[in-house]
């Protein structure tokens, strides 16, 4: 388990090592092609150091990588702000957001798909502004109004990934407790349930409810997120959100375990169609 930047460096390094090997080059030969010392290539491949986007382009050119999607993904992992024309908007909130949250947003913006189990609150990508305000106020102590406003702005700005081209594909399983917990008062919760139903009808969103009647389930250990990336599954990562930090799992065994757990949760949850009816019933006071 590591922090996000370390995960991305390791994954980027492993991918570059594979590309170099496929190109039939040793690390020394690769270094000579781009005019570096061999140790620089080795540090990048082991994840000991990052790589500037301009240097990454040199390596990809040297390895004959022409796949535009793969190049874009690797450039984003390297921290490029212009890969794919996407600006890293959250940098404007550096003074407000803790590093772990900035890194989560970075992964979210780069991913092609996101699977999430939520057991306590509505996923951030589906929250209304007033629900987000109530959750943030409860979760973070001693917030002044300006900082609270900024955090809510960030939460809403994150939702643009669902409207991008192509959009993030979101699969969410919500424990019934998420729908029953009255956050912000009856009016706020009623509008939040309406927002969930609107989102559930989007083609890029698959929303399922895990009702109390399903009994004990594998998700009782807590919420989690699985990010998947275009071009290669080797870059996928599981994120476990903690009170003061986030943990990132990148081992294939962990990814497989959490993927199987999510599949099991989807199997026991209501279908997307029945979930819509269930949310509507809760909204009507059923």
From TrEMBL:
- Give the species: Streptomyces actinomycinicus
One example of the protein's molecular function in GO is: DNA binding
Specify one Pfam family.
DUF5753
According to the entry, every stretch annotated as the HTH cro/C1-type domain falls at 16-70
Lineage from the top down?
A: Bacteria, Bacillati, Actinomycetota, Actinomycetes, Kitasatosporales
User: Do you know which InterPro entries this protein is assigned to?
Assistant: Cro/C1-type_HTH (IPR001387), DUF5753 (IPR043917), Lambda_DNA-bd_dom_sf (IPR010982)
Protein name as annotated:
Helix-turn-helix domain-containing protein
Coiled-coil regions, chain positions: none
